[in-house]
Specification:
Structural class: alpha/beta
Largest sheet: 5 strands, parallel
Number of helices: 1
Strand content: 25-35%
Radius of gyration: 15 Å
Distance between the termini: 46 Å
Number of strands: 10
Strand order of the largest sheet: 1-3-5-7-9
Number of domains: 1
Shape: globular
Length: 114
């Protein structure tokens, strides 16, 4: 397979793939105190929520929270990272210190701790 690095699509794809790889490496190396699914402070409520990591909270119906201090309170919401919050319905929050409050919104990256 030949890769043409002059193509903008190829460069963007490689950059996005590399960023996701770095995000997951940081999560594994920085916050690996607990190897089990339900660590200290992990809470779930509602219909079929899932929470993995330390002090995560999945309180919305069909929601998922993973990482450290992550929260998913919107219905069908997904959060993963360090203090990532998906508060709107059908929203996704991936990263560190990121808050997604609108419905059907996606937030990826690093926010502000303040």
């Amino acid at each position: 397979m030949k890769i043409n690095l002059k193509s903008n699509k190829t460069i963007h794809y490689l950059a996005i793939s590399f960023n996701f790889l770095l995000l997951f490496i940081l999560q594994i190396n920085g916050y690996s105190q607990c190897a089990s699914i339900n660590c200290d402070g992990t809470t779930t409520s509602g219909l079929y929520p899932s929470a993995i990591g330390g002090y995560t909270s999945a309180t919305g119906n069909y929601s998922f929270a993973g990482g450290l201090f992550s929260e998913s309170s919107g219905q069908s919401s997904f959060s993963f990272g360090n203090r990532a919050k998906a508060l709107g319905g059908s929203s996704i929050a991936l990263g560190q210190f990121i808050n997604v409050t609108a419905s059907t919104a996606i937030g990826i990256g690093i926010g502000f701790d303040g």
